[in-house]
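Input chain follows. Return structure tokens only.
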Amino acid sequence: MATIRDIAKQMGLSVSTVSRALNDNQRISEKTRREVKRVAEQMGYQPNYNARNLTNQEANAVGVIFPVNNRVVDNIFYVGLLRGINEQLTERNYVLSIAIGNTTEQVLDNVKSMINRAQIKRFILLYSHINDDVIKLLRQQPVEFVTIGKPAAGQKWLYVDNDNIKAGADGTNYLIDQLHVQNPVFAESQNGWPYELDRREGYLQAMHRRDKQAVVFSVPENDEQKVNQFIQEHPKMDGVVATDDYTGLRIYNWYKALYPDKKIEVVGYNNSLPNELTDQHFHSVDLHPIEMGRAAVNLLFEGNQDKNSAVKKRAIVAHSVGKSAKRSD
């Protein structure tokens, strides 16, 4: 089996240069890194991860942290994120390790174990939230992390996101321009996620530009009576911009239960619902989670190389508005 010394001799390079190139050290040019990896593959070189990890005191694993939410496990959006993350980690000879729990305390214990016992130094959080205890922990540790979703105002870290203000406006415009909705309302959860605030802002901007009255409804988690009351108090409502597909589906089903013969158009976000749960009046904005997952890994490994570059601190993935929640696998 070829060694780093064999590769260095073959290419006329120093052992340290070859070692750095194989470990994606940014001090080595991208051209040299590619050439070293090509020769290493031709010579049958296999990296010794255990030795590398002992030297670096870092596992060849990335911790992937889920939000505390009972619905995340079967949400197609998170499955897409994991697919994108895993694709890029495989190319870098890393694996993913998942932290998930029913409570914040469970997730915190999991993450602490990853840092202290498994020597994991890189993390991707599949969410971003104000005053999150897990993020507070990571910021106190000698680790790198990326969030899916931008930080709250006044906070800075690496993140991947969509342009959610534009996505909110695009969803609203789609209802009005393509589906001829006259009075769309905006439905959000009561969690105050940053992406919800941005999508709401996009909705408000779109309604203001058209001189239409904006109506925002915070949907209670377990209070069907309040939802029915809201629907009945807004008889002109003929469309809904929902902050995500799950919220949109709940509003849609409650509306159809009250008014089975009336048509209402709904736009949700994430393109995450099975097709059998929706019909031609339910539409979704595709946020391209696979691309977001890939971008998160690339940012995690490369985002802090240039401390002066604002571009390297974030990655924005474009969204697309679809006719209905039809996914392509």
